[in-house]
Design brief:
- The protein has 401 residues and is of the alpha/beta class.
- A seven-stranded mixed beta sheet has the order 4-12-11-10-7-5-6, sandwiched between helices. Strands 1-2-3-15 form a four-stranded mixed beta sheet.
- Helices cover 40% and strands 18% of the residues.
- The protein has two domains: 3-54 and 303-400, Alpha-Beta Complex (Aspartate Aminotransferase, domain 1); 60-301, 3-Layer(aba) Sandwich (Aspartate Aminotransferase, domain 2).
- Helix 11 packs parallel to helix 13 (381-400).
- The chain has helices at residues 3-14, 47-50, 59-71, 82-95, 106-123, 144-148, 153-156, 174-180, 204-217, 286-301, 304-325, 349-358, 381-400; strands at residues 26-30, 33-36, 41-44, 99-103, 131-135, 166-169, 185-190, 193-194, 200-201, 220-224, 248-251, 262-266, 329-335, 338-343, 361-362, 364-366, 370-373.
- The structure holds pyridoxal-5'-phosphate (PLP).
- The site of pyridoxal-5'-phosphate (PLP) has 15 residues, from helix 5.
- Pyridoxal-5'-phosphate (PLP) binds next to helix 5.
Length: 401
């Protein structure tokens, strides 16, 4: 047995089988590349599912995290700690928000936002306003609350009854939104661009309409930018394209450079939670706080949103050329460095993902037979030039199989 087979067998024998993992055992990463235990290099257009915006082994991040580990990694929220308070001040300023609650994951950010929305309405004496309107095909996480607002019935069904008071509407359909919103609605929750749901972008008109409905009826507008935020679309936040600024903004993934953390950001008027309402042992710990600071340092220094826009346009151009030559590609979606390649039904995106690994390329899938491309935001045009022929080879092999 090779070391790789040994480790895979060890994992299969002891891990709870909640994932169908790919046959790859990662050893380390460097820049745009992942290396397996056999020393093979893989060009990474997944970035740990939109986490490694700075690529792997960024020297500034590595040095900063090591320094923080040498000092302290956890304090509890009985105390202040410098990395978390500086991260809070910088992140709120960067996002144009007033306050932040730090979590350990995206799911927890969604959970907290649901509580915040209900608390906001309750604080205004509206006891019956507890419902959340969420989008079909959305993904917000796997805990009971986040799952309750996730628009994938197959994910929810085995765990019913969930929290209740949730209505789903078809993304982009204003009529169905207007039908769903009533005197019980506390919040509207949306991803400006659905990730897992198939790189489905809400139009500027729809985003503006949601903003107007929320303003008219004092409903909390919550944008989940856990996947599409922080430069990925070529702007700091995906909502900016429409100008429809949310009241509550949820972040996670990229903000921690791989250290687990997330954030519920809100405007002052929506800072509805008070002492005793919410908490977390690890949320806002010094290591995660330092990671957020390190992320922001590099994000600004490298002008990553600008790079995402530039290389994203180049990637769209190259994918368009590929789609023109390949009948197996039936559509392209997304913008910046969040793009999807829609495949013809006879070519499975799952098969392409597996075969891409044999071509030394990491890609993932999304709902709707889509290959999802989420490279680190440091990606260059030359990396796209390496990616395209590998993706093409994987699609051709999947089509022949
Ligand atoms: C849009 C969105 N929201 C929430 C989550 C859940 O985040 P986490 O896996 O960090 O809990 C994800 C994860 O993929 C996501 O893409």
């Amino acid at each position: 047995m090779s070391k790789k087979e040994e480790l895979m067998a060890l994992g299969e024998g002891s891990l709870l089988h909640t994932y169908n993992r790919l046959p790859l055992v990662i050893d380390h990463g460097d820049g745009m590349y992942l290396y397996d235990v056999d020393g093979k290099a893989y060009l990474d257009f997944c970035a740990g599912i939109a986490v490694f915006a700075l690529g792997y082994a960024d020297p500034h991040v590595d040095a900063g995290l090591k320094d923080q580990i040498g000092k302290i990694v956890h304090t509890s929220n009985y105390f202040y700690n410098e990395p978390a308070v500086t991260a809070a001040a910088r992140l709120t300023a960067f996002a144009g928000m007033d306050r932040v609650f730090f979590t350990n994951s995206g799911t927890e950010a969604v959970e907290g936002a649901l509580k915040l929305a209900r608390r906001y309405q309750l604080n205004r004496g509206r006891e019956g306003r507890y419902e959340i309107v969420a989008m079909e095909h959305s993904f917000h996480g796997r805990s009971m609350g986040a799952l309750s607002v996730t628009g994938k019935p197959a994910y929810r069904a085995p765990f019913e009854p969930l929290i209740g008071g949730v209505k789903f509407v078809e993304p982009g359909d204003i009529e169905s939104l207007l039908d769903a919103v009533d005197e019980k609605t506390a919040a509207i929750l949306l991803e400006p661009i659905q990730g897992e749901g198939g790189i489905v972008e809400l139009s500027d008109e729809y985003m503006k309409e949601v903003r107007a409905i929320c303003d008219e009826r004092d409903i909390v507008m919550i944008a989940d930018e856990i996947q599409c935020g922080l430069g990925r679309t070529g702007q700091d936040f995906a909502w900016q394209k429409s100008g429809a600024e949310p009241d509550v903004l949820l972040l996670a993934k990229a903000m921690g450079c791989g250290i687990p953390c997330g954030a519920i950001l809100c405007k002052e008027d929506f800072a509805a939670l008070v002492p005793g309402d919410h908490g977390s042992t690890f949320g806002g710990n010094p290591l995660a706080g330092r990671a957020v600071n390190l992320f922001l340092d590099r994000y600004e220094e490298l002008d990553l949103a600008k790079n995402a826009a530039k290389v994203g346009d180049y990637m769209k151009k190259k994918l368009t050329e590929l789609a023109e030559e390949m009948p197996q590609i039936v559509g392209l979606r997304g913008r910046g460095l969040m793009q999807g390649v829609v495949l013809a039904p006879e070519v499975g995106a799952g098969a392409v993902m597996k075969l891409a690994l044999e071509e030394r390329l990491v890609v993932i899938t999304a709902e709707g037979n889509i290959v999802r491309l989420l490279p680190p935001l440091i990606v260059k045009e030359t990396d796209v030039d390496v990616m395209i022929p590998r993706l093409k080879a994987a699609i051709l092999r999947a089509a022949e199989a």
